[in-house]
Design brief:
Blueprint (H helix, E strand, L loop, with lengths): L9 E5 L8 E3 L3 E16 L8 E16 L5 H12 L3 E6 L10 E10 L2 E2 L7 E9 L2
Antiparallel strand pairs: 1-2, 1-5, 3-4, 4-8, 5-6, 6-8, 7-8
Length: about 140
């Protein structure tokens, strides 16, 4: 695929079910950060080794992005509604069009943990840093 800038990457939310997804691109967003993407470790401390060993545990992540405040835009309204309803929504943050077979990235159900609303005098009104966390 080669080198890409963040502007070339894609973000989506699923407006349907996991079994029959309808992926809707989230276009009016700025920088996206998959913060703390990594694995937890399970410590193995046995007498048979001189070292404290580790086993891979669960994957952890948080996702943060800025989204323009654009009431009346279907994507904006769906994400804002999910936030206020405290509804888990499936998101995908990927390196290309989601329907393409070689597209890779993260697909995960999330809750919106925080969504500060920025109303600066000389900047676009926006949800400053929406923070998504994995949902149960």
């Amino acid at each position: 695929m080669g080198l890409q800038t963040g502007q070339e990457l894609k973000a989506y939310y699923n407006s349907n079910t996991n079994a029959s997804p309808t992926w809707v691109e989230i276009k009016q967003i700025g920088d996206v950060t998959l913060s703390d993407l990594g694995i937890n470790l399970a410590e193995v401390n046995l007498r048979e080794s001189n070292y404290i060993l580790n086993l891979a545990g669960k994957i952890r992540t948080g996702i943060e992005f800025m989204m323009a405040y654009n009431r009346g835009n279907a994507v904006h309204d769906a994400i804002r509604s999910a936030a206020f309803a405290r509804t888990a929504t499936q998101y995908a943050f990927v390196d290309g069009a989601i329907a393409t077979s070689d597209t890779q990235g993260l697909k995960i159900y999330c809750l919106i943990e925080s969504f500060p609303w920025s109303q600066e005098m000389e900047d676009v009104a926006r949800w400053d840093t929406l923070k998504l966390v994995p949902a149960y």
